[in-house]
Amino acid sequence: MKTYSAKPGEVERKWWVVDAEGKNLGRLATRISIVLRGKDKARYTPHVDTGDFVVVVNADKIAVTGNKLQDKRYYRHSGRPGGLKSRSLGEMLEQRPAEVLRIAVKGMLPKNRLAARQLTKLKIYAAPTHPHTAQRPEELPWQE
User: Fold this and answer.
1) Ramachandran assignment for 66, one of left (phi > 0), alpha (psi -120 to 50 degrees), beta (any other)
2) Percentage above 70 pLDDT, the chain
3) Rounded to an integer, what distance in angstroms lies between the CA atom of residue 46 and that of residue 109?
4) Is the pLDDT of residue 144 over 60?
5) Which residues of 94-122 are buried (b: 16+ CB within 10 A; e: fewer)?
6) Spatial strand order in the sheet of 122-124
């Protein structure tokens, strides 16, 4: 019996929509990263992008537990001396709520070129509407 290996041309992609309102940031990012990689499919192949598209709405209404709104920090550096910038999770949710979820999902993907391609299949919107109705996305099954 030979081991099956998916080919890029024969991968069937679906579109899923997720309402992030009231959902925990880490648990939501974990579920999205699994779908983007295709690990929930029987035809998963590690070196081929077998994942689906994910559309996230209401990203500005993500829930976090504890004191993470004040304590969790996001850092970036300009590359210049003294160029380290820091923001709290609360500030990030006010200014760029979609970026919070994108950073969380990116951290759960592998660190290679395949992950960059998988991350392009993630569409995040702070509003409850999205422009991907033509693709007929289905509600992602969610277990809690």
Assistant:
1) left
2) 99
3) 12
4) no
5) eebbbebbbebbbebbeeeebbeebeebb
6) 122-124, 53-57, 15-19, 138-139
**Domains present along the chain, CATH in parentheses:** 13-64+97-130 (3.90.1180.10)
The answer for 22, left when phi > 0, alpha when psi is -120 to 50, beta otherwise, is: left
Full-model pTM: 0.92
Q: Round to whole Å and give the CA distance between 123 and 135.
A: 13
Q: How far from 131 is each of 6, 66, 120, CA to CA, in Å?
A: 30, 34, 16
Q: Give residues with Cβ within 8 angstroms of 116, minimum separation 6.
A: none
> At CB < 8 A and 24+ separation, what contacts does 128-135 make?
128/19, 128/57, 128/58, 129/57, 130/17, 130/55, 130/57, 132/15, 132/17, 132/53, 132/55, 135/15, 135/53
